[in-house]
Task: structure prediction
Amino acid sequence: MRTVKSIAELGNRDFGSWLRPDSAPDGLTPGRRQLEEIVRKLEAGGLPLDESIALFEEGMRLARLCGLQLDTAELRITQISTDAAQPEEAPPETSL
Result:
């Protein structure tokens, strides 16, 4: 059985570079720790090809999930900022 020495053999350059601790706060998403562990295993190499591909596939699924969560958070922040920038409407004046 062929083994993969590193994730680079799967056609991905420096897959883990965007997972640096300074790139996102700890606990940002539930899948982040799982994704980091997958990256460590793949970068360490020495895994059978089938296992490497399965881990890579799971890592891509988790990366998409994390990306969606970040997109959702960004959208919420944008909406909050937009709402905060708009002046409050004064109640209509009534004449007696």
Remarks:
- The helical segments are 32-44, 49-85.
- The first helix runs from residue 32 to 44.
- Residues 28 and 95 are 53 Å apart (CA to CA).
